[in-house]
Amino acid sequence: MFAVIVTLQIKPGKREQFLEVMLDDAVNSVQLEPGCLQFNVVQSAEDDHRLHLYEVYASADAFETHKAMPHFARFGAAAGELLVSPPVITTGTHLFPADTAWSKQPAASLAPVHLSMPVFSTNLTRRLSASRGSRGSGGLRIRTRWLCLACLLLLVHLAFPGQVVADVRQGTLLVGVTEAPPFAYKEPGGDWTGIAVELWRAIMTHHGQAFTWQEMSLHELLAAVEQGTIDAGVTALSITASREQRMDFSTPYFDADLAIMVPHKASSGVFLNVVEEIFSLDFLAYVAVMLLFALVAGCLVWLLERRVNPDQFRRGMAGMFDGVWWASVTMTTVGYGDTAPRSVPARMVAMFWMFSCVILVTVFTASITTTLTLNRMGGRVTTVADLATAHTGCVADSMAEDFLQHLNVRPQRSPTLEAALAALRAGTLDAVVHDRPLLQYAMAQGQARRLALLPVVVENDAYGFAFPAHSPLRKLVNVELLHLRANRTYWDALIRRFLGE
User: Of 24, 30, 23, whose CA–CA distance to 106 is shortest?
Assistant: First the structure.
């Protein structure tokens, strides 16, 4: 076993502040690190601002893992400000007891315990002080005897960790949560629920791990995870490259995408809508493109047929019109049969044109349908490209903000989705970019009246749980999360509960 002995001298007046951080490190080390078998905190009897740590690890590598943990980082940051001098650290290998005799230190009690050495340590100090005045070999034997006894008693005291750890949590995780329906929100009774919340609750219940919720804004949650002041973040949290550099994420538990919400233009009636759409610039542009293709194909067939088939493809402008007429009726699959090429080259061109028309008509139908739908919605924004010239909003610190900044768009940042949608309804924004599932849920709950989602795909997205860097919880959560995702009965019931069929 790998042992670590540390001596710490706390600055005057900083004892209580340092103990809070020290005990946080001690308890989390034992409870969250499989390689940490024992972590004792001992207070000196002569100086209540001096602490001694006695730590036992399964190996030197386990100690290196300990130094990479978030709770150790919090301890290290406090040590630089609250200690008189750097810690004095001694490491070594256990000779006795044998490695097989060691077991995991039991969980600490919730009841506060005062940190102090045994009462007899004061008497030992007096006797050792008195022995310093002795002379000769007798005095040396006395000093040696009392020194050995003091060391023995110290080791006995260190062997009972339940007597030295105080005012700590019984392995209760602190989990940050941000309201983002239907993934995380409060019920009328004040309890948290949602897809992400219920997933997390199921995972923690399976492992028998206690936790408490800490409500935060998205900005506060991301900062707390990065700094390691919370154990995890649970909400509709997008996994992005910039966030992955600062924290760890679980495997994705939900695939989504970004969407654009705009004001819905009031309808002016079915007849007027049809007239407006037929004479819209977008519709006329599509018709002009199709006529251009028909003109090229018709003229090419006319050039090949005007000598061998002058009855159907006449000379001059009339013959060119015959070619365009043939190309148009072929493209629209009407095909009266009154005109048909006879020469082999013209028939080869005709075959190519007929197969091409299948693709052209399909693309034309899909494009004109999308365009007319967007025109019906109205507003300044109908495509992603329009965001650059419109007043666009998003939720602060969301994936949508990263996406808009990548497009060199400076969005209006709102603290919540409700605030962003309110600005959109008030007319101060032309569009709001946010996660599609959250926008769809807001519409289903009646929170997006007079608003509409554009039928365009903006950017793919995925949600996951967030952890401080190198958190051991990540592996535990990932394994159980994959089990739950593979359980189709559980997963389908969860999705139906919050998103419907």
Answer: 30
**Strand-pair partners of 352:** none
Give the span between the Cα atoms of 332 and 348, in whole angstroms.
19
Signed CA dihedral, 221, 224, 227, 231: sign only: negative
CA distance linking residue 383 with residue 456, whole number of Å:
7
As to burial, measured by CB atoms within 10 angstroms (0-12 exposed, 13-18 middle, 19+ buried), residue 260 is buried
What values do phi and psi take at 494, rounded to 5? Answer: -65, -45
From the CB of residue 80, how many other CB atoms can be counted at a distance below 10 Å?
A: 8
**Can you say how many angstroms the Cα of residue 163 is from the centroid of all Cα atoms in its chain?**
41
Q: Characterize the bridge pairing of strands 50-57 and 2-9.
A: antiparallel
Domains of the chain (ranges; CATH) run 2-163 (3.30.70.100), 173-253+464-499 (3.40.190.10), 270-377 (1.10.287.70), 384-463 (3.40.190.10)
What SS3 class is residue 365?
A: helix
pLDDT digits (tens, 9 = 90+) for 112-142: 344 433 333 333 333 334 444 444 444 445 4
Residue 305's alpha-carbon distances to 311, 321, 339, in angstroms, are 10, 13, 11
Query: How far apart are alpha carbons 7 and 18 in whole angstroms?
Result: 14
Residue type, 34: P
Q: Which of 2-11, 106-115, 413-422, 465-474 has the lowest mean pLDDT?
A: 106-115
Average pLDDT for the chain? 81
Query: Which spans in 107-194 are helix H?
Result: 120-131, 136-158
State how far the Cα of 427 lies from the Cα of 389, in Å rounded to an integer: 16
Instruction: For tokens 């630089």, name the residue.
Output: 80
Which residues sit opposite 52 in a β-bridge?
Answer: 7, 42
Burial class (CB in 10 A: 0-12, 13-18, 19+), 491: middle
Among the residues of 378-487, which ranges form H helices? Answer: 399-406, 417-426, 436-444, 473-486
Tally of CA atoms within 13 A in the half-sphere of 494 that contains its CB: 21
pTM over 0.70: no
67 class by beta-carbon count within 10 Å (0-12 exposed, 13-18 middle, 19+ buried): exposed
Beta partners for 459?
258
Q: 214 in helix, strand or coil?
A: strand
Nearest to 247 by CA among 469, 409, 25, 16: 469
Q: What is the pLDDT of residues 130-178, one digit of tens each?
A: 444 444 444 445 455 545 544 554 554 444 433 333 332 347 999 999 9
